[in-house]
Amino acid sequence: MKKEVWKIALRESLPILLSYVFIAIAFGITMSDAGYPWYLSLLSSVAVYTGAFQFVLASLMTVAVTALLMNSRQTFYALSFVDEFRSMGKKAPLMVHTLTDETYAVDCSLPRDLPERKNVLFLVAVLSYAYWILGTLLGAALGQILPWNLEGIDFCMTALFVVILMQQWEKTTDHFPALLGGGMALVCLIVLGPDRFMLPALLITSAILFVTRTGEVRAK
What residues contact residue 104 under an 8 Å CB cut-off, 6+ apart? Predict the structure, then answer.
């Protein structure tokens, strides 16, 4: 690929690098503290590659329903890029596998008319994947060597999500989806509790957005 494509991908993925490495280190340390060897930490990052559930995995809460509720949001992310990923041919499976909160945020921020946009999307995905795996290995190694007080370390994932929300809020003047999603999440949290609120909130939010956006398009 052209050097310019690499430069764009590196520049756009820099925030992911700064967050992923430290979060993945925290995950590697958590896995090490739980008694898992480094290669299982690496395998988890290569195969699962979703930080929020990996922290749950390290705590032995490996319940299928929990995994579904925590990661169902990525199914909704993929809907925004179905056609684009499909047109990328053999790269499509990797693009789907590596679509996370952070890469989704970066992908959405890239201009549609960006030269070699698909190559940039691919490199952002690959680089982000590499950042996470590298951080996991560093964390697993440090966890074996140094003593750590891990209380509260998993809050870094929550902090990262808040930063992503703030970035997206600043980039758009249409805050209705964010307010709707936050409101539905709060209502479902109160009604259904912390273990069951995420998927219903996503479904309700998506349905409302589909109806309202479809109506706006027809009106135009």
Answer: 74, 77, 80
